[in-house]
Amino acid sequence: MQRRHFLALTGAAIALPALPLRAATSPSDTIQTWYKLVLELVRHTATYSPPVAARAFGYLGLATYEALASGSGAHSFAGQINGMTALPVRPAGSYDEALILHAVMSEAVATFFGNTGPTGQRAMAAMRDKLGAKLHAGVAEDVAARSAAYGLAVAQHIEAYSKTDGGADVDNMGFPRDWPPPKGPEFWLPTSTIVQQQAPLLPAWGENRPFAMPVDAPCTAGTPPGYSEDPASEFYKQAMEVYDTSKTLTDEQKAIARFWSDDPMLSPTPPGHWISIALQIIHRDGTDALHAADALARVGMAENDAFIACWADKFHFNRIRPLTYIKRVIDKNWEALLITPPFPEYPSGHSTQSGAAAAVLTAVFGENFAFDDATHADDGIKPRHFADFNAAAAEAAMSRLYGGIHFRAANENGLRQGAEVGSFINALKTLA
Amino acid sequence: MKILTLGLALLPFAAHSETAPPAPLLPSFSEETTTAGVDQIFAGDWEYMVGGGVSTFDCNADARPDLIIAGGTNPAKLFVNNSAKGGDLSFAETASGLEQTAVLGAYAIDIDSDGIQDIVLLRQGENQLMRGLGDCKFQNANKGWGFDGGNAWSAAFAATWEKGQNWPTLAIGNYIDVTQDMFPWGSCTDNWLHRPDGDKFAPPIALKPSFCALSMLFSDWNRSGTPSLRIANDREYYKGGQEQLWHVNPGEEPRLYTDAEGWKRLRIWGMGIASYDLNFDGYPEYFVTSMADNKLQTLAEPTDTASKPGFKDVAFAKHAIAQRPYTGDDLNPSTGWHAQFEDVNNDGLADLFIAKGNVDAMPDFALRDPNNLLLQRADGTFVEAGDRAGVAAMGLSRGAALADFNADGLVDLVVVNRREPVQIWRNTTQTGNHWLSLSLSQTAPNRDAIGAWVEVKTGDHIQRREITIGGGQAGGSLGARNFGLGDLTEAEVRVIWPDGTEGAWNMLNADAAYSLQKP
């Protein structure tokens, strides 16, 4: 059903969603307006590194979907995903779906972004009050009260569920205060001059409870090429590929690297980029709220699980970054185009979560679903066109090689790892 | 004070024997907040989360730095310095005409070159140029000077005298569009460049793009003779933004330095700028405060003729770090605001003070964030001494100023805190180190010689200091600058004046204040 619904819209022009408040009266508009704020909060909340952002997207999508599913006969994720108990049932009576969603998001966004700064707090309060007043207008008081109470109950259920996944508390922006580096030439070393980043980001994140991926059998990217400084080795060849590529970068390759750079604090992060892609399509196509919530929940949960799988591998293999290896072995003066992230190299987080997102979005929207991506238009970065989601994911993966921050194996194996993660999300039943 | 006219005759070079650099002398500060007579609170809600500036200047020609302190929703206040030489700090709040509300910051500058300092008030709303009338009185001169104060959230300021102009060029940095409550991100409003038009100001030029400036500084980073405008921008609010360096060449439209010229993109929570030639190569280093990190930038490839504006960060290498509290029980990341280089122990090496404090109850950042006092060591690295020196205050600090309030040759300290009283410390360091206090003057225009460089030979190196108006967090110091001499009882001094004239080296006896006048 979903596939037929979306395939009919393939090929239409996509504009950056303006999402004005005055338009936020339908349930779908309500979702989109809140998500627009969420993308800003991810960018502007210091703890929101990509794995943390993915986790929030997972729970926000889940709460949004469950709030609507209970009124539509759609399947609940409860009983399908790890550890989530049955959601509160709707008491008898009439409901306003937009007010339910507003209550869900008012509560859940305030919870997941409770540590954002004063500007974010001010923005959340303004959204809660102004959008709430607009949605409330013309709705019977008993319906409004019932809708708000139910939305709050759903959000609180999801919040309670989230507390036990291992990722609820992030200290020191995710960086351990002490980090004794393991000894060996193959292991990750800090690449930043920022003091905080002398330890790697979120070393225990791989132990978090995933949504759909088996808890005891996380997807793996497999073993990377063995470390070697022998010019004949695969490791050296992949390093030389990064180095040689950096010396011959075309403007297009630079543009690709920067388009997918998705730096924390300067963008909605990689998972936010894929949420943005979904939102642009939802806005363009006028997708109804339930389908929108389903898509956002699936993408968010897929990204969360992808980062768990990826981070488990990252800290199992603990691999050196190209910047360190190339300076050590090939050219001590070499610099990468992009800022090297402060954690181990293998596999590529962006690749893994892009592979997962592409797998899920392909299942939701269909094969050969062309789209334009204007996620970074506000930052002056031109939109890019993609023939389908897998093409976008492949470009995202390759961008890390162009940017000089990953070897080929991390990108290619990360994509495969992500696709496998996505298959677990795709197996979940929702609207059908 | 001794007044010297610096002639062009060369004086003999004073060769000082090379000795092993001493370990940093631990300074000591005595807090005199409750007795010094400085009673001010920078108050206000979200619209005043930045700002809180304090400036030092002499409003009554007594050679003692007076204070103008922003109050946010409280009125700004002027405090006249009555401190006795070497005595306890003593100030008196004085009705001045500066008692405006909605003030985030203030800078002193003699705009009309009448020998009386004027004040620029940065406000949430219309900025105001307050003409000095003498005896610490001021009146609004916006209309008379053709100054368009605008209506913005102004948080940064810098000034320079462009060649051929009798009046200064003023740069004002603006922050967020205050009307945007749900989506303020990306709403940075234009910065303004107020250039002179004869004896008044022309309509301001918008410095597009603008990226939510929190500190600005005209500085001659490449010693070309023409300062450029460095802007620290808050990445929290811009989109597509970065730190900026503008060409501001006389008679030309301002334009950004580009990647092609060697400018390297940097995106931080830029909050405050301090500058000093730390490595004695003739070029200033720049310390830029941020959150969970700070930058100490030095030219990546300095050359004698055409340096590229590419800077490398040496904060980590130099231990000029203040990324998290170094004392107390809160070890979350820090939030840095005002920064200033001063030699607090007179050992001949500039030290670094950083005012720190949470934006407003952000749980991811330290809520009890001690201010830093980083002492420079002889090898150019820094070591933290804020707690041992007695200045590790935990308030939500914003602006600050270091100046010698009681004329004893030791630089004292005042700090503005958000929603809490201003704090002030007297430098009580017991030291036999010597010092010079140097102030510059020249005939109008630009009587305070903004843009000059003061050079002091100490040991085997030359201390160099650019005379600027701007930087810091919404405030700065205008007037005498202190130079530590270590154990030297005299030192050679010269001035390179704003027009490029190189003064002669003059041997000055230590432990005295000098007014250096351009011949």
TrEMBL record, chain A:
It comes from the Bacteria. Residues 1-23 form the signal peptide. InterPro entries: PAP2/HPO (IPR000326), PAP2/HPO_sf (IPR036938), V-haloperoxidase (IPR052559). Gene3D superfamilies: 1.10.606.20. Keywords: Signal. Residues 314-411 form the Phosphatidic acid phosphatase type 2/haloperoxidase domain. Pfam families: PAP2 (PF01569). This is Phosphatidic acid phosphatase type 2/haloperoxidase domain-containing protein. It comes from Cypionkella aquatica.
TrEMBL record, chain B:
Residues 449-514 form the ASPIC/UnbV domain. It comes from the Bacteria. Residues 1-17 form the signal peptide. Keywords: Signal. The keyword Translocase does not apply. InterPro entries: Crtac1, FG-GAP, Integrin_alpha_N, UnbV_ASPIC. Pfam families: FG-GAP_3, UnbV_ASPIC. Gene3D superfamilies: Integrin alpha, N-terminal. This is RNA-binding protein. It comes from Cypionkella aquatica.
